[in-house]
Amino acid sequence: MAVKLDGAALAAKLKEHIRAEAAALPRSPALAVVLAGEDPASQVYVRGKEQDCAQCGIRTQTHRLPADVRQEDLLFLLARLNQDSDVDGILVQLPLPGGLDPRPVLHAVSPEKDVDCFHPLNVGLLALGEPRFLPCTPAGILELLDAYEVPLRGRYCAVIGRSHLVGRPLAQLLTGRDGTVTLCHSRTKNLSALTRQADVLISAVGRPGLVTADMVKPGATVVDVAINRLPDGKLTGDVDASTVEAVASFLTPVPGGVGPMTRVCLLKNVLRAARLRRR
Ligand code: NAP
């Protein structure tokens, strides 16, 4: 039976450290959140981030904009937040309402305040192995694996999903830790032949039941990044946990695995932004 990689418990511990570190700064760190439109999931995510920050002594200011906000008004707000010396980190909640191109918006966030690590400069620094900020979900996964002493050096890692948010930066971080990485996607041929070799298998697709027990090497570590809502309202990942837990040695639950670690890594980035700006 696989050991549960308990992201919720680890995140709670890490938050205590972050709270202590934030309290030791001369001024409490501040995160500006930009939320455009009424997307219900985004509202929930933003509320969660506000609560996390409050628990750790990080101030937040949330800028709520109507769904029909003009791009230039959004860019004007970001320019103002970039200049505001009382703001350490800026986060634009995605997805943006239809009609808004996320790229110029994300590129308009100052790289020094880009706590989501979406700005091309920060993406480039990460690719060079000299990150200013670590992208939250990949960093959270590595921190969880480290906490359970899952070795990465020389291990074969299969990542399913090649998004800029998760799969690609995760492949870079795993490579940086001396893992041997295959990045799989919707056009990958013989997916299960690759995943069956993996010592560490990470799925970030968004398709319930994609990863079944026959795709998992006995004793592997399996990380389920996905968050899917089933018709009955329950959350589930990509992994068929009921069968995979009999094969894997470690498995993340959904919820309570990668999600809380992603959230805690955002807090770490805000703290880091605050420190970097004070140097
Ligand atoms: P995304 O941008 O939609 O990317 C999905 C990836 O999955 C794409 O690379 C796609 O391939 C690949 N894919 C689709 N069908 C596939 C298949 N049948 N076999 C293999 N690969 C397939 O999604 P994302 O933003 O990375 O998010 C992925 C999941 O993680 C979602 O469920 C999301 O909610 C969740 N998520 C969770 C957290 C967290 O904190 N836990 C954070 C971020 C995201 P192509 O590139 O070929 O289209």
What can you tell me about this protein's structure?
By secondary structure, the protein is α/β, with parallel strands linked by helices. It is 40% helix and 16% strand. The strands form three sheets. It has a six-stranded parallel beta sheet. Strand 5 (156-160), helix 7 (167-176) and strand 6 (180-184) form a beta-alpha-beta unit. The model has no long low-confidence stretch (mean pLDDT 97). The structure holds NADP nicotinamide-adenine-dinucleotide phosphate. NADP nicotinamide-adenine-dinucleotide phosphate (NAP) binds next to helix 10. Residues 137, 160-163, 165-167, 184-188, 191, 204-207, 225-228, 258-259, 262 line the site of NADP nicotinamide-adenine-dinucleotide phosphate.
Assign an overall shape.
globular
Order of helices and strands: EHEHEHEHHHEHEHEEEEHEH
Distance between the termini: 48 Å
Roughly what is the average pLDDT, rounded to an integer?
Answer: 97
The largest sheet has its strands arranged as: 1-11-8-7-5-6
**Which stretches are poorly predicted, pLDDT < 50 over at least 5 residues?**
none
- Share of residues in helices: 40-55%
Key features of this structure:
single chain, 279 residues, alpha/beta, six-stranded parallel β-sheet, three-stranded parallel β-sheet, 10 helices, binds NADP nicotinamide-adenine-dinucleotide phosphate
SSE inventory with pairings:
Blueprint: E1 3-4, H1 7-23, E2 30-36, H2 40-55, E3 59-65, H3 71-83, E4 89-92, H4 102-107, H5 120-127, H6 136-147, E5 156-160, H7 167-176, E6 180-184, H8 191-195, E7 200-203, E8 221-224, E9 228-229, E10 235-236, H9 241-244, E11 250-251, H10 258-278
Parallel strand pairs: 1-11, 2-3, 2-4, 5-6, 5-7, 7-8, 8-11
Antiparallel strand pairs: 9-10
